[in-house]
Amino acid sequence: MRVFTDEEIQSFIDNGFVAVRGAFTSELASACRDEIWNLIEQEHPDIKRNTPKSWTKNLIRIQGSDADPIVQSANTPRLHQAFNEVVGIGRWDARNGIGTFPIRFPSDEEPEAGGFHIDGSIGVLETDSTGYNYKVNLVSDYRALLVLFLYSDVTIEDGATRLLVGSHLDVAPILKDADPKYGMFWEEIAPHIDIDKYEIAYAEGNAGDVYLVHPFTVHAGAANRGTSARIIAQPELPPVGHFELDRPDGDYSPVEAAVRMGLGL
User: Fold this and answer.
1) What are the backbone angles phi and psi of residue 100, rounded to the nearest 5°?
2) Phi (first) and psi of residue 163, to 5 degrees
3) Tell me: domain 6-263, CATH 2.170.270.10, correct?
4) For residue range 122-160, what is the model confidence (pLDDT) as tens digits?
5) Is the dihedral of CA 124, 59, 75, 97 positive or negative?
6) Which of 80, 92, 181, 194 has its CA 20 to 30 A from that of 107?
């Protein structure tokens, strides 16, 4: 049974994201929160789940988990079908774990790492030995989608991820003339993107909802002005191969069709 209507698929192509409502159950979301809170308290012993006074940081990151509830949440039949409809059957790999988890706690301060960006996936070792930085290319090697898993209820007040509507269409032509293998850093793309011209959408929803976001959609974190911890995950969906923008049979997935639209094809 299809997850998305034709109108929702077209909305993904036009706007750069679509929500899978009820991708996993609220009960499974609760079990995932328990697992994530265990990781929070292991990695940050000063932070306690039932002691809001201990939530002195506005943002922490948990790198990942392969606990059973987490893996189950990424592999429900409904979510797999949604991947098929947006990326294409046989064109993505299932996840056997999830990360990272950006946990935002209530705060009056502006969020750390809150700037608009797109996520790179092509690792480039910096010459100053500071480690890897990440680029993105036109065929989106190593990233079929950005996937936002809502493990807690999320409203605008709770720090819902901000999405710039239609920005993916403008990123594609910027990448067209970049190195086809390594692409560009976000810092090279950013000067060509007028952030203020876009409508901002918010990845709001109930625990168990999942947003499928085009990898070229510009997005950003937001401050949590609510009263509880906002718990989401933001992994990539691993592709099989990469985007094909000149298919002889014309069998383009919606994620590829969006790139072609941005290129005027």
Assistant:
1) -90, 165
2) -125, 130
3) no
4) 987 665 555 668 899 999 999 999 999 999 999 999 999
5) positive
6) 194
